[in-house]
């Protein structure tokens, strides 16, 4: 397995933007980033009709964001499982540069709302005091255009490192032994308005 990030297929960035813009599609995508699941499991977990989940899964597959993770016979029927495709990544410059200002704002707000919800869930849980090796960081700084580009590159590299750790952990977890630790890692670089 190569440590290089896989090339993102053309059109996948647009599919990811569309997914983020759809409440159920984004919820399905987020579940599948953690683990494979069947349409039935997704419908039950998200309290959505199977038809809605099926429609969104078809769109995610067509956009190259989700792929088959195999089949399993359960109670006399074959259940298909899905997972996020290895090339499904974050919203990059190529995808976001094609959005108008309203689409950019709506996309950023959807992701920020999810970040806030996940952060609130993590902070309110009893898990926070179970580990000493967690991290919270926030930096309000002023940079020049070159500094902005450097920060954007740092965030991209950090996102790639998060994916690398995810993939290597998945391989180790597949071999059995340790129980998975659910984690959330948010990286955001946003320009603040003038005071």
What is the CATH homologous superfamily assignment? Winged helix-like DNA-binding domain superfamily/Winged helix DNA-binding domain
First-residue to last-residue Cα separation: 48 Å
Secondary-structure element series = HHEHHEEHHH
Q: Determine Rg (CA atoms, Å).
A: 18 Å
> In percent terms, what proportion of residues is strand?
5-15%
The largest sheet is:
3 strands, antiparallel
Share of helical residues: 40-55%
Written description of the protein model:
The structure is a single chain. The protein is mainly alpha-helical and 195 residues long. It has a single domain, classed as Arc Repressor Mutant, subunit A. It contains seven helices and three strands, in the order ααβααββααα. It has a three-stranded antiparallel sheet with strand order 1-3-2. α2 crosses α4 and α3 packs across α4. The protein is globular, with a radius of gyration of 18 Å.
Characteristics:
mainly alpha, three-stranded antiparallel sheet, Arc Repressor Mutant, subunit A, 51% helix, 7 helices, 195 residues, 10% strand, single chain
